[in-house]
Amino acid sequence: MRILLVGAGGVGDAIAKIAAEREFFEVMVVADYDISKAERTVEWISRKHGADIAAKFVTAKIDASSADNVAAVCREYEITHVLNAVEPKFVPTVFAGAFTAQCHYLDMAMSLSEPHETDPYHKAGLKLGDQQYALNDQWERAGLLALVGIGVEPGLSNIFARYAADHLFSEIDEISVKDGGNLVVRDDEGNEIFAPSFSIWTTIEECLNPPLMFEAGKGWYTTQAFSEPEVFDFPDGIGAVECVNVEHEEVSMLPRTMNAKKYSFKYGLGSEFIGVLKTLNLLGLDRTKPVRVRSAQGPVDVAPRDVVVSVLPEPAGLGSRMEGKTCAGTLVTGKDLDGNPRATYIYHVADNAWAYEHYESQAVVWQTAFNPLIALELLESGVWQGRGVVGPEEFDPKPFLDLMASSTGYNQRWVSQERLPSNPLSNPS
User: Fold this and answer.
1) What pLDDT does 365 receive?
2) Which among 42, 76, 82, 79 has a CA at the least distance from the CA of 59?
3) Residue 119 counted as domain residue
4) Does 58 share its domain with 160?
5) Which of 202, 272, 360, 382 has the fewest Cβ atoms nearer than 10 Å?
6) Strand 104-107 relative to strand 81-84, pairing
7) If phi over 0 gives left and psi between -120 and 50 gives alpha, with beta otherwise, what is residue 298?
8) What is the CATH number of the domain that holds 262?
9) 238 lies in which domain range?
10) What is the CATH number of the domain that holds 79?
11) CA distance 307 to 368
12) How many domains is the chain partitioned into structurally?
């Protein structure tokens, strides 16, 4: 297996660092438009693991906005699998470039949505991933696999949902992904600051778009941003966090192949974070269409959202300033195998102190990074096989979770926690 890793930002950097501990691939090309980022990652691997391990990693410059350039890099390095770790606005070109080069493809965030033209807060328009799913037949005919949404959310959350359906439930009322944490970022003086732990470009896209929902008999529909707030008690000492509806891939993905009455995604953002996002929206700073800006050098066209990205700290560099934990999990409610009411929260928690100590990565990007590597390892061994455009919920979840938790695998504990069916939001422990 010869892997092209597109993007050496926070997630890409963590992917390469974790991959240095595994033996299933022949070479990994760490590629970025700013090749110095890729070089820093490989230098870290060399210092940590030695020159022999680092020799499996090659750096390259890539333009993720050009399908032709992605295909050319694939051909140059005889790539078999493209792992896309750049922002979702580049999904169409990286996706197309991989297909042109006849490579298998994986990503952690899917093609962007477009709101309904006349009724965006009630009706679904173009959903997350629709542009990729539309090309399923093309990928199938070519004998190629595009494993989409294989990060933590989507990705691990989908696998938790499939595990629950296969092993824990006879009937499912709702699959609701719940993401929350108690992460705090501080400045040099120790003051808490606003600094998103993931790409602010992606965060704005997820949080300000109309949240997507799905109900049996009703299909996909949308609601207002930050709708239906609820307090969810997260495990491992994180505690109660207010969660709200947010647009996310799982709600677009899971209903295609799974059988539940309702699907939702709720994110524990906090009132301050929501306030900042609302202000960005009010001022038009969330827009992606360039506007003309006067400057000392003359007028320039700039996308307001790109300005916001530029003035905030890079998520990849927050590890040393961050403290706390983040939890990714899937709450499933319905009936157990004997027909009794059941509510189960299946989750994984990442501690920032641990992630930074071992990988110099902050918790959120690190938690995303190990999932596509597990998938690649299962594909290399033949345990997972497929073709076409598919999500991780279409594969057997048990080998993934076994490799994830194994001491000879990725040594990451996941937990299936029972909740009271009458109040699944409350943590009985």
Assistant:
1) 93
2) 42
3) no
4) no
5) 382
6) parallel
7) left
8) 3.30.360.10
9) 156-363+413-419
10) 3.40.50.720
11) 25
12) 2
Nearest to 234 by CA among 180, 159, 191, 189: 180
pLDDT tens digits for 228-279?
Answer: 999 999 999 999 999 999 999 999 999 999 999 999 999 997 777 788 888 8
In the chain, the amino acid numbered 248 is: H
CA distance 253 to 150: 11
Question: Hey, which residues does 3 pair with through a beta bridge?
Answer: 28, 81
**Is residue 183 in some structural domain?**
yes
Q: What is the 3-state secondary structure (H, E, C) of the chain?
A: CEEEEECCCHHHHHHHHHHCCCCCCCEEEEEECCHHHHHHHHHHHHHHHCHHHHCCEEEEECCCCCHHHHHHHHHHCCCCEEEECCCHHHHHHHHHHHHHCCCEEEECCCCCCECCCCCCCCECCECCCHHHHCCHHHHHHCCCEEECCCECCCEHHHHHHHHHHHHCEEEEEEEEEEEEECCEEECCCCCECCCCCCCHHHHHHHHHCCCEEEECCCEEEECCCCCCCEEEEECCCCEEEEEEECCCHHHHHHHHCCCCCEEEEEECCCHHHHHHHHHHHHCCCCCCCCEEECCCCCCEEECHHHHHHHHCCCHHHCHHHEECEEEEEEEEEEEECCCCEEEEEEEEEEEHHHHHHHHCCCHHHHHHHHHHHHHHHHHHHCCCCCCEEECHHHCCHHHHHHHHHCCCCCCCCCEEEEEECCECCCCCC
Q: Confirm whether 26 is domain-assigned.
A: yes
Residue whose tokens read 């102190």: 353
Residues 46, 76: contact at Cβ < 8 Å?
no
* Across 60-64, 160-164, 359-363, least confident range: 359-363
Question: What is the per-residue pLDDT across 80-130, written as a single tens digit (0 to 9) for each?
Answer: 999 999 999 999 999 999 999 999 999 999 999 999 999 999 999 999 999
Pairwise CA distance, residues 285 & 158, whole Å: 32
- 135 domain-assigned: no
